[in-house]
Structures are given as structure tokens and as C-alpha cells.
Amino acid sequence: MRPTCLRRWRAASFAIVITAVATACADNDDGANTLPSVTLLATTTTSTTTTVPPSTVAPVTTAAPDTTTASTEATVAPTTAPPTTAVDPAVEALLLTPSGVGAAEFGADPDGVIGYVSSFLGDPTNDTGWIDPLSIGACAGTEIRLVSWGTLTLQFGDASNVVQGRRHLYAYQYGVDGEVGAPPVGLATPEGVTVGSSVFDLGAAYPGVVLNPEDDFVAPNFYVNDNLRGFLTGLNDDAVVTVILGGIGCGE
């Protein structure tokens, strides 16, 4: 191979070169028009590793929090307000008096009384409507009506010791014998006597109260006046009130 061709061959920059140099080197020493032999050159690529000197900057170290240090903050217990029990407005408004129930006095118009009591206790749980008095008992007049809210029953009629000839409220009953604690709970007299009050408390509220033992027809009972009386479980101090009656009811 001519030196010129060799220089050209060595000047190639490929890693593995297979080059036909027939055109450039056609005239060999013999003058024959033949291709020179091809030599495969494998170039070894030397990897150059650049070593970076270690940094002279000190590494930043994040210190873990000191868990051994006691907290100096005071722990304040949450303040809880004591629960309050709202007083049922009916307990304060619907006082059981010798003259009626709250602002509804004996002799008042039935519709007005029913609306008034319903504003505290809700709709009546029972209403007989206007019926024949004899269907109830020996009642005066030509018609009678009983309206109840649980164990509170109001009696209406067109004849009583209060009014004659027109419909009106004339009596009430609060409580049912043997059902102490039935709703509406807590209705009371102005002196604080209610269903469940003891005979001792009854005597303290009404020093002149009369206690009557049971007989063949009537359970033990108490008498404050004609318009305020009721029934008891007994006459001893720890016996309790079971029924409070106001006004003079039907057949009394």
C-alpha cells in the first residue's frame, strides 16, 4: 500500500472502519486494477475518568429535636359548663289553682281554654267532643266535653256551680291513680304540690289540709277546700299524692 493511502487510512477517526479505497489507490505496484486488502482496525476507546476532589464544604447536619426537654407550657383543662335543665314553661304557667288552670279560669270559653293549654302542651291526646252528660254520669246540663293532655283533663259543660246556660270550663283533674310520673310531668299548685308529692309536703304546703282514710267507695284523699282536693296512696307521711282535682266536677 502506498504511503499516501496509509496516511489517509490512519487519518480516519471512526472506531471500526471498513473502507474501500479502490478509487484513491487503484494503481498498485503491479499496475493491476485490483482492490487492496482491507484491514479491520479496532480502536480502543479509553475512558477518561475525572476525579472530583472531595468538597471542602462541611456537610450540613440537621439536629433532631431534643425530646428530653420537658415542655414548659401549662396544660389547661377545657372548661365545661355545667348542664342546665330548662324548666318546662307549662310547669310555671299552668298552675293548678282553686280557680282554674293557669290563666284559664273556671267559666272561660272552651275554645279559648283549649287553645291556651295547647300552646304549652301541644294538641290534646283525647277529646270526647260535645256529648250527652248522662254518657259520663250524673252530670248537670245538656252537654259535656272532656279534653285531655295525657293525665291532665279539663271538663266543659253548659251547666255547673260556676255558670248556667252556656259552654264553659268548670273543673280539671291532674293525675290518674296508679300512674305517678305519667306526662305531663311537673304541673303543680302555687304552693308546689304536684302528683308524687308526699303527704308530709302536702301538710307543709297546706297546714289546714284534711286527710280522709279510704272507705268502701273512695280511696284515701285530701281536702284543702271545695275547689282543691285530691287522692293519696295512704295517710302516712311518706304516702304520695296521686290525683289533684280542681273545681266541682261532674256528679260531685
Description:
This protein has 252 residues and is α+β, with helices and mostly antiparallel strands. It has 2 domains: 1-44, no CATH class; 89-247, no CATH class. It has 4 helices and 13 strands. The strands form 3 sheets. An 8-stranded antiparallel β-sheet has the order 6-7-8-9-13-12-11-10, covered by helices on one side. The longest helix has 12 residues, at 110-121.
How are the SSEs ordered, and which strands pair?
Layout: H1 3-10, E1 16-17, E2 41-42, H2 89-93, E3 96-97, E4 100-101, E5 104-105, H3 110-121, E6 126-127, E7 144-149, E8 152-159, E9 164-174, H4 199-205, E10 210-212, E11 221-225, E12 228-232, E13 241-247
Antiparallel strand pairs: 1-2, 3-4, 4-5, 6-7, 7-8, 8-9, 9-13, 10-11, 11-12, 12-13
Features:
alpha+beta; 8-stranded antiparallel β-sheet; 13 strands; globular; disordered N terminus
